[in-house]
């Protein structure tokens, strides 16, 4: 106990307890056993053996060590469950991408096999993803609009579409943009650019996916109502489309609408039941598969297509297609879209991958993920796939059904292969409205993200603004431009956050070496004659001027007026000196007396700081404007006779000052102090010396 | 002296002296007399009387108190000198704006009178400015290109331009964009948005003006060579124009080229002579005025226009014109340009105004300046003026010839009025090449700013990158888009600067309460069992992941592996428990023993931190990602048995943590400490307690 009192620590603690901020409490969860667990764990981090090739093809590293007995059954069940989900989702998302449904199945096959070889996440289910699909759809419909494929009929009023060549063109476009986005991902991965994803902060990603879901829903309304609105592209196209859809509601196909409503109600009810049943049955009920089977049977039996004019999926060719080269001529017109696809696809996959990596304690290599996704998309693009990422809903199923490794993904690809080769053509009578309904119901989770606004309002208003702005920008400017604008905005918030800092005068917590803002605490005391000033943010070009203004205001010194007064005083003195000079020859001594008289002004009793201490500990970096600002502050106050000291500077800040020629013969590093307390002690010391000198002289 | 030793300060100082960073030296410039000067000065800052109206019309405040005897002569001489400069500059810059020269004279008259009434800077010379003029020129030539005013001749090869209606249209465009930019400035001023200028950091402004000067020079080449290149607009137009000019060099008009070369050589020589003579003559020689007078006389005598085909200024109407309403139909197509004009004009004027305000000790009100410039431009726009700002060269002359207040500006306006009414038409024979030469020579200063690259390379590399990027962006994307791109880039640098922070482990400076990075200083010692971690930058979304990675790496703990090992341990324990459970009925006690055995692992002797202290003093703010990161760190290490403490949090940071639900029953504010030393002492105390408990048990 005596040992513990060797420092003035208790005093400090007691004071702070009173202040109510930094309380000291006994930790109950700090047990010896816990520390030992840590020691156990560290044993595992031995020297790392990293073969470049093994890290490039992770399959070779993990497959030979695949714990067959432990994982095989789980992976099998999980793979089949996910494969079954791929079928309806792939077909539905193909609608979003504006390509025939079978290409959604291709996209659920090739890329997944490639990710199986190169991917590092064991749990995410890569494949078709609503947000990516709607982004692809905006490219395909922009570059191959319906209007390009009109076959003029004999009657001038009736026109028909050359749907076959339109779809062929759209598939080519989708495959090409997918190929390009894969190349982008590959390049980003090879130059180790995985960190770009850090710009996709959580509020941004959640708002972005919500906005994308709105785009998805709007794009599917035509299938649900059986109408044919005009295609819009560019900013505000979502608004125009909604208006157009509303205007066309009168032409709704009743049969299609009935199918939509029945399917949505059925799906929602079945999902609720399935959620209730989940506790009893280990494998989730394939609600969507059942839905499309029932819908296909009903559609076929009732002949919905011809009897009620309900649009159906149409021809689904069996088997696989040979690879085709991407359409090089189109590349130029889709660079922006491809880049957005690359970033979004990677962003979604890596954030989901990280969540499960953390949960199941393994590592996801962000650059390798970029390479894996890049290869999946670029090779997939050659096989007419559209861009993939990873789907939250499938991933949840994959994990909950016992999937333990990438093998589950490979098995799901095999399931899709079987469907492609044998079963696919059975679904030709499936109404498109059913697929649209499946999409809506799958987007429930994203819509629930609107609740973020409330929780962010409570926790962090700036992040809420980022959320709302991302939503608005993405809804208005479409997913590609919207993403860029949202990232730019979220980066801007860093500036907003540091541009209006809180400026405080610090005072001493009595009896300690701790200094706190005087406005925050009652008990802290300003030190007589010393002004300690701190900004809550870095000092840089966007707030340098405010820093000076706040400093002058808080210290109660208007340097401009101060200097002007000084000038007047000097002018006065000069005049007196001139007068004196005239009489100088006679009364040589008189001049000195006059000059001395002009010096101290009797009626200035305003308490003034003798020294100013700038606490720079929150400063992260100094730009040239920051260095210049500090130099000006030092100079201005120096001219007015107030010494300025800097404390808490980080190494990099001092280096910036050195390089920026802040220091010279007059201004030495002696004005730097490690802590506020050091600077205060130095000032007080200087003062006591001066007082001593004063009394001795 | 005894008094001075009451603190352990000397020890600290001595150590730091050894470390060679924070040296203590005696201050020689800290004198008593200096302090008294300050006391004198503070007398001036009495309670402020601020009539709203007087602050809106500063003229009413300062004119009644105008010190006639002191200032009048200086202002008169200065006003006449500046007025004489306005004539050639106004005419030359009108060429830049692609309007007839007389409108440059109008722009040197109306706006200056209005600024005289509303402006707060006493020294800047508002009026035509090269950068603004070239920006106007890009608008006028884009909206009224030559091709719109072609009169097809009888011969299909020869076409003539309808110059009169083209110029009328261009004047209308220039006046309208000027009016709109004035309205923008007015609005920005009324909503107190003067702070926008803080985004225009010094490197940015200097690079921007240099790039604008390049645009100016390129736009004037056609007059110097007497050629007619095609007009380009949009990005890269500068490059295209240079290529076109090079291609047309064969068609150079020799007469024009000779005039250009002679004028440039003459001007440069005269300026050098004038600079040499400046020491002897108080008033600067009006070199430019003399140049245009000589040039006009020569051109008239030699009939350069008809004899040599040299393009001359042409008709200069006498007198003033009645105001006209702006062309409302054009407003939509020039919003971006007008906004850029508003920001640039204000940015240049306020930065120059501030320099002189600081030098001559008075205050420039940034919002009132916006209002003054806004009124100057909007009213000027009605009188067919083009947008004005303030010129460095004229301002220097105004100050050096003894100008002491806005009265000098008013007098210069009167000089221009006299020229407009009486003398203007005399200059009709002036070759345009001479005006172009005057522009080149005036841009010397801006070209010298290229030296910034070297000095910034030495002082601050990031600011150098901002400089170079601003130059490149502005040269490539033209002044309007370039400004926006440059500002965006300079804001991005804040992110770059904080995105790659320096992560350090702190150690104690022996015998003190000061903690410094161990890699920076040899003598600091890490504290056994306690890891003190600091990032040099704010923790936010763009670097949160790196923060965790760096922390894990520096502390030598891979939490992922740690958790996986923990899981394995638990699985082992579970298996043992199961086994034990089987035998449980018989040997109930055996299970406990097994569990205890699984606990501490004997061969883990790796030194591990017992506690981790995160020094958050450089953190300016916390976003939700930051809070989540801290929560994860606390949780992960907590699960591994390492206690995490936070210290140096600012008030705002603690508030963000509170709102972000960082604290709960388990995680209390007791983990917060004011300083690193407090946290260290607390840890050591806790440790000694534990040891004591250990020995006692």
From TrEMBL, chains A, B:
GO terms for cellular component: membrane. GO terms for molecular function: secondary active sulfate transmembrane transporter activity. Residues 580-603 are annotated as: Disordered. Gene3D superfamilies: STAS domain (3.30.750.24). It is a multi-pass membrane protein. The chain crosses the membrane at residues 93-118, 173-195, 237-269, 281-302, 338-358, 370-394, 406-423, 467-496. This is Solute carrier family 26 member 6. It is found in: Membrane. PANTHER family: SULFATE TRANSPORTER (PTHR11814). Keywords: Membrane, Transmembrane, Transmembrane helix. It comes from Sinocyclocheilus grahami.
């Amino acid at each position: 106990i005596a040992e513990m009192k060797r420092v003035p620590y208790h005093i400090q603690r007691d004071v702070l307890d009173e202040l109510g901020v930094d309380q000291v409490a006994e930790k109950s969860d700090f047990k010896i056993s816990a520390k030992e667990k840590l020691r156990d764990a560290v044993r595992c981090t031995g020297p790392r053996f990293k073969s470049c090739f093994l890290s490039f093809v992770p399959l070779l590293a993990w497959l030979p060590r695949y714990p067959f007995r432990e994982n095989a059954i789980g992976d099998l069940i999980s793979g089949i469950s996910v494969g079954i989900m791929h079928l309806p989702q792939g077909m539905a998302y193909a609608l979003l991408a504006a390509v025939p449904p079978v290409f959604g199945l291709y996209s659920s096959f090739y890329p997944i096999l490639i990710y199986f070889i190169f991917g590092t996440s064991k749990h995410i289910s890569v494949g078709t993803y609503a947000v990516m699909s709607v982004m692809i759809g905006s490219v395909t419909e922009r570059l191959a609009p319906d209007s390009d494929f009109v076959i003029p009929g004999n009657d001038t009023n009736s026109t028909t579409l050359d749907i076959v060549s339109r779809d062929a063109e759209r598939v080519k476009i989708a495959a090409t943009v997918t190929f390009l986005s894969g190349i982008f991902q590959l390049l980003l991965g090879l130059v180790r650019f995985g960190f770009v994803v850090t710009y996709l902060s959580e509020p941004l990603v959640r708002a972005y996916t919500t906005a994308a879901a709105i785009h998805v829903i709007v794009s599917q309304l035509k299938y649900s109502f059986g109408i044919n609105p005009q295609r819009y592209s560019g900013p505000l196209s979502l608004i125009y489309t909604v208006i157009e859809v509303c205007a066309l509601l009168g032409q709704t196909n009743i049969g299609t609408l009935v199918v939509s409503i029945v399917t949505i109600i059925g799906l929602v009810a079945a999902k609720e039941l399935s959620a209730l049943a989940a506790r009893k049955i280990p494998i989730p009920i394939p609600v969507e598969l059942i839905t499309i089977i029932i819908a296909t049977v009903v559609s076929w039996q009732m002949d919905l297509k011809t009897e009620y004019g309900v649009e159906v999926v149409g021809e689904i060719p069996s088997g696989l297609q040979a690879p085709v080269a991407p359409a090089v001529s189109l590349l130029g017109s889709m660079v922006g879209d491809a880049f957005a696809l690359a970033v979004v696809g990677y962003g979604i996959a890596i954030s989901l991958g990280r969540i499960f990596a953390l949960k199941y304690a393994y590592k996801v290599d962000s650059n390798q993920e970029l390479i894996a996704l890049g290869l999946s998309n670029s090779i997939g693009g050659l096989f007419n796939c559209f861009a993939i990422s990873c789907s939250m809903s499938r991933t949840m199923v994959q994990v909950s059904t016992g999937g333990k490794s990438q093998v589950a993904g490979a098995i799901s690809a095999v399931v899709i292969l079987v469907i492609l080769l044998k079963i696919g053509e059975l679904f030709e009578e499936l109404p498109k409205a059913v697929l649209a309904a499946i999409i809506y119901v799958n987007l429930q989770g994203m819509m629930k993200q609107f609740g973020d606004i409330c929780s962010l309002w409570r926790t962090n208003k700036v992040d809420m603004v980022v959320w709302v702005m991302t939503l608005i920008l993405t809804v208005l400017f479409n997913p590609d431009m919207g993403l860029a604008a949202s990232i730019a905005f979220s980066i801007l918030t860093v500036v907003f956050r540091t541009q209006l800092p809180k400026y405080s005068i610090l005072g001493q917590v009595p009896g300690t070496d701790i200094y706190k803002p005087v406005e925050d605490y009652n008990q802290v005391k300003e030190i007589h004659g010393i002004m300690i000033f701190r900004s809550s943010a870095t000092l840089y070009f966007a707030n340098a001027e405010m820093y000076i203004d706040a400093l002058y205001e808080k210290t109660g010194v208007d340097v401009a007026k101060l200097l002007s007064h000084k000038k007047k005083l000097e002018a006065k003195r000069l005049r007196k000196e001139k007068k004196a000079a005239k009489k100088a020859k006679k009364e040589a001594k008189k001049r000195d007396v006059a000059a001395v008289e002009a010096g101290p002004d009797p009626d200035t009793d305003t308490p003034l700081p003798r020294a100013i201490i700038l606490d720079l500990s929150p400063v992260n970096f100094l730009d040239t404007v920051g260095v210049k600002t500090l130099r000006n502050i030092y100079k201005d106050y120096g001219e007015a006779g107030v010494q300025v000291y800097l404390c808490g500077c980080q190494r990099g800040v001092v280096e910036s000052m050195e390089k920026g020629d802040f220091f010279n013969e007059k201004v030495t590093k002696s004005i730097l102090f490690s802590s506020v307390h050091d600077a205060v002690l130095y000032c007080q010391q200087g003062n006591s010396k001066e007082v001593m000198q004063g009394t001795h002289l």
